[in-house]
Structure formats: structure tokens, C-alpha cells
Please model this.
Amino acid sequence: MLLRSRNIQKIVSFFSYALMANIFFGSLILSKGLFDLYLNILFIIPFLAFCFLYFRRLSINKTLLGVALLVIVSSVLNILWGNSYAILFFKIFGGFVFYGTAYYFLFRLNGNKVERLFIIYLRIAYVVALIGIFQEISYLAGFKLGYDYSLFLSNIRCQGTTLGLLQVTSILQEPAHLGSVMAPAFFVSVLNVMGQKNYFIDKKASWLILICTLLSFSLIAYLGIIIVFGLLLLNYKKARFMVFAVIAVAVLSGFAYKTLPNIRLRVNDTAAIFFGKKTIDQVNLSTLSFYSNGFVAYKSVVNNPVFGAGLGSHSVSYDRYLPELIDPVKIAHGYGLNKQDACGLFFRIISETGLLGMFAFILFIIKFYVSRKKHKYFWIMSNAILCLFILHLLRQGNYFYSGFIFFVWGYYFTYKNMLRQQKKDNNDDLVPATL
Model:
């Protein structure tokens, strides 16, 4: 549908920036409770009202409707069987409808042009990086108001120091969240810095995004770097690049392990618990959260292998199954860590939707993946988004954090746009030359 006036275009532009900024606003929570109230809904509610007035006809994809009905039926049955509670299901399912509809309309209003919204995301990521670097400089200068944002944003945690530097969070809640949400921007930035061309942003912005992400000193950010180089290897497959990538990953991994105590502790504790050298009550909180939620997800899928225990049920499964692993009294200091989001999307999907849900998500990733050989720049957006997906699978289980729903739509529309462009290019090739 064509936008009919400049005023409409201005409204769409405003909402485009507002909803893309929402990706970074996870720490801005108005109130917490049974239904957490995030600042971003202040933009989404009027945006949805505008969309319902603008789009006179609405259609629902049959495949998406079928998936929704399957999730509803399986979740309702699990509620009846006592595996979950109705309020938990409605909270998550309602969130999918709310955010999914909003970001779908956002793509529709922008002509399904992923690159337009992706560039806005990168511009905002650049600003977030600037704030992060300002935070680090303020810390070194002893200017507390410039780095400790918990003074006026209570959900932001001012982290400890590493190598005499602050673990920057920018406007995100913690360094791990910064590493996760910046992953797509990091992918683009690495590509720009390593090559002669600039994709979407210039080299100055790329360097600042790289520096800010590295200054988070978070394990998730450094895992993201490894994933970035892995995906670049997958797409380039050149001997020179492969050697460089392997060396870069090895040096970075060795540096992180040797010099960053938090990462070294987590790696050592994780290895110790898997090899039986430590028990779960002897490890750090991050490893405790990962291992305990992994155990709960395993027990949930063993008891409900096909459909899981129902959407939103992981916290119920946590309370039910964790005592089989250890007496909760022994881990009172860390009981309930990440039990709402399962510590990672892999654990949460398999716990709540079973093997079928995990299969569907992996199939989605494979089916709509765009490799470098398919198109000259659509592959960049596809792989950048895939970085975020992988990090979410490993260490971020909130369905609505870091713009996950936006990136799901972005991944899908990137593939569709690539097919449309390929078809256009093929048709252009068939046009005979003018004599």
C-alpha cells in the first residue's frame, strides 16, 4: 500500500525510529509484576491504533494461524494437566500477538524493505555505542553520573571492573544484554572494518560499535564474536580469510580466558560441573543458572517430548523438577535464577514447546537463511540476524527482549526480498538489448 501524503510518511518515519529504539529499551521498565510494564508499549499502543486505522483490510497467513492454533491447543491441554497456569500462557501468547503484530505492521508500512529498518537499527546501535564509550571515559575520569546510570535507571546494573576498566552497559540492563543486542551490528562492523567497502554504516561507526561491544567484557559478547567469524568463514571459504579468522578467534579466546576473571571463572566452573569435579552448589551464579535451567528443560522434554509443557510453563517446571537435582535450600542464594526465561532460548523452547517447537525454529532458520552466494547484500542482514538468534539460543531466553520478534520478521522478509530481487534480476537478463 502506497503512503498517500507527506504527513503519513512523517508518522511512519517517527514510529520506525521509535519502535527500532525499543529494541534497546529493555532496561526501561515502568513497573514489574505478573505483567511487566515496559516503556516501549507507550510507543507500540498508539502505533497499533494508527495501523488499524490505516490498513482497512487485514489478512492472516494460514501457516502462521495453524502454528498459533497448535500452540494454543497444546498449551491449554498442559494447563488442564497441571503443567502450567492459564495466566502464564496468556502473558506470553499475548506478548507474541502484541509485538508480532506491531513489527509486522512496521515492515508493511516500510514496504517490507528490511534494509530500511536495518539501517535505522544500526544508526541507533551507533548512538548506543557512543553512550557506552562515554560511560567508559566517565569511569576513568571518576565522573560517577556519567557511568553509573543505576542512579536514575534502577534496572541498569553498574557492573564491576575488568583490567581497570568498567564493564559498560550503555542503556542496557547488563553487559550480556548489550553484547546480545549489538550482535547484528557487530557482524556488519567486522565486515566493514575487514573490507574496503562500507555496508549500511561507515567505518567510524563500525569501529565505535566494535570497541563498545568489546568493553562489555561479557561472555555472551565474546561468544558473539566467535559466531561472527564462524558465519563469515561459512560464507567466504577463502584460505586467506580462514587463516585470519582462526587466528583471530584463537587469540581472542585465549586473551579472554587468561585476562578476564569473570569469563575464566564461568568456563572453569562449567567444565568442572560437567566432569564431576564440582557440585551445583559450588559454582558461580551464572553457571548455576545455566546448569539448573538446562536440567529443568531436560526433565520437561522427557516428560512432554512432542509439545513440551506449554507456552510460559518453564517457571512451573523449574519449581517442580529442580528439587530432583538438588535441595533448593543448598542453593538458596541462587534459587530461581532465570527461571522465567530458562537462561536461554534453546532451553525455553524445548521446555515449553518440546521437540516439535525446537524442530520448527531450526527449520525456520535453515529455510529462510540467505548465504553470500545467493545475493550481494541480503546475506549480510540474514547472517547478522542469525548471530542474534544463536546468542539467544545460548543465553537469552526472553522472547521479547533485544527486539527478537522484530528480527524474526526481518529474517523472514530478508529471504523474501532476496527471492524477489533474484527474480527481477533474471527478468532483466531476459530483456533483449536495444539495437
Observations:
- The longest strand covers residues 29-31.
- The chain has a mean pLDDT of 88.
- Residues 84 and 316 are 6 Å apart (CA to CA).
- DSSP finds 17 helices and four strands in the chain.
